[in-house]
Design a protein that fits this description.
Strand content: under 5%
CATH class of the largest domain: Mainly Alpha
Number of helices: 6
CATH superfamily of the largest domain: DnaJ domain
Number of strands: 0
Structural class: mainly alpha
Number of domains: 2
């Protein structure tokens, strides 16, 4: 089952959490409280703002609440935010613009790690042969 969260053109620039003024770790009760306060403030019948602005703002608030109040839609929305906020740029830099892996020299730390790995392997093999020889002699 695939869940698609469509973002209206006016909401794409700001996250739903920003629209409601809550953190991404907010509980369902905090989201509901923020929605109620904002919907009272921006409802066209109760605000002093221009009716067009109030309707657009209320529509934005309702869309944010619709997604964030449902746990499944919220999880899908949170996943859609991950590449934007949590992808470290160094993980992506291993490829050229054409998508092919880029070649680069090994760093000093990588060479050191490979030497230690090789020494560990040789020591283990030496110990294994030594144990085998001692068992043959005994």
């Amino acid at each position: 089952m695939s869940i698609v969260v469509s973002l209206p053109h006016s909401v794409e620039k700001r996250s739903f959490y920003t629209v409601l003024g809550v953190s991404p770790q907010a509980t369902a009760a905090e989201i509901r409280r923020a929605y109620r306060q904002l919907s009272k403030r921006y409802h066209p019948d109760t605000t002093t703002a221009a009716p067009e602005i109030a309707r657009e703002k209320l529509r934005e608030i309702q869309e944010a609440y619709r997604v964030l109040q449902d746990p499944i839609h919220r999880a899908a929305y949170d996943l859609s935010l991950l590449p934007q906020y949590q992808t470290p740029p160094l993980l992506v830099s291993g490829r050229d613009d054409d998508g092919l892996p880029s070649e680069r020299p090994l760093s000093g730390g990588e060479i050191f790690a490979l030497v230690i790995l090789l020494l560990t392997l040789l020591i283990c093999l030496g110990l294994a042969f030594t144990v085998a020889l001692l068992r043959e002699l005994a």
